[in-house]
Amino acid sequence: MPLPSPFAPAPPPFVVLKLDDMFATDGRVPDRWQRIADFSAQRRLKLSIGLICNSLDADQPDYLAGLRRLIDTGLIELWHHGYDHRRWDEAGVTYCEFSKTDRAHQHDHLVRAQQLAKDKLGLTFQTFGAPFNAIDATTAGVLATLPDIRVWLYVDPALAATAGKFAAVSPGPVNLEAPVHKPNYDAFVAALATVAPTHPRYLVLQGHPMSWDDTVFAEFVRIVDHLLALGCPFVLPAELPGLLK
User: Fold this and answer.
1) What percent of the chain is helix, strand and coil (3-state, nearest 5)?
2) pLDDT per position as a tens digit, 150-172
3) 23, 72, 167, 177: which sits with the fewest CB atoms below 10 Å from its CB?
């Protein structure tokens, strides 16, 4: 039975599930990711998965076949989550794949990952989200040269505008995990109540399913069921610009 909407009189927001860090384990899609895919199919629920693209480098036919099956459902969008998802320190400075690195590095990683997806999966990424959500002005400059990518996850709209991308912003205090890597139903519902009066048009909710054991996966399911009971439509990142026009 539908729950009374805390978003009224506005309609419930669109929900994007931004699930990070897909990579191969033992040459195939890991069991915890397959559980997410099975849940999507059972509920006819749209969600999105951030692919760490150097996982496409190796000759792993079972992994590639598993990813193609995800794409073929029509319910799952794979998005560009960087080439190597690397973070490192030099001389007391923390560098990330798309933060504090030079243009050549960022261009190579963005383009190499985009090409791998085309070559190995027949997929053109339409959405990008940086590892650790760490980006800088250089990232915007490089993304401006990649017209196939239309949506940028968890970025300041002003920076995304310089690249000509739609900014799918963070939902602030509301997220699947509290703390990171731990879905928490009670914390989610409490945080949702604080943002509902602002009548958000969409919520992009981040999670890391490789960290979810059975207990916290059950918390994720409770969160999804709560949003469904509120009448929230689940959509893909690439769909957001058109839906919000």
Assistant:
1) 45, 20, 40
2) 999 999 999 999 999 999 999 99
3) 72
CB count within 10 Å of CB 227 equals 21
| pLDDT of the residue at 94 | 97
Q: In one letter, which amino acid is 181?
A: H
Return the bridge partners of 18, or none. 48, 206
Domain 14-243 has CATH 3.90.1150.180: no
Q: Give residue limits of the domains in the chain.
A: 14-243
72: enclosing H helix or E strand: helix 61-72
At 182 the pLDDT is 97
Q: Is the pTM of this model over 0.85?
A: yes
The closest of 235, 245, 238, 239 to 14, measured between CA atoms, is 235
- Mean pLDDT of all residues in 95-101: 98
Buried b (16+ CB within 10 A) or exposed e, 170-203: bbeebbbbbeeebbbbebbeebbeebbeeebebb
Helix pair 31-43, 214-229: axis angle to 10 deg:
20
Number of CB atoms found within 10 A of residue 96's CB: 20
N-to-C CA span, the chain: 30
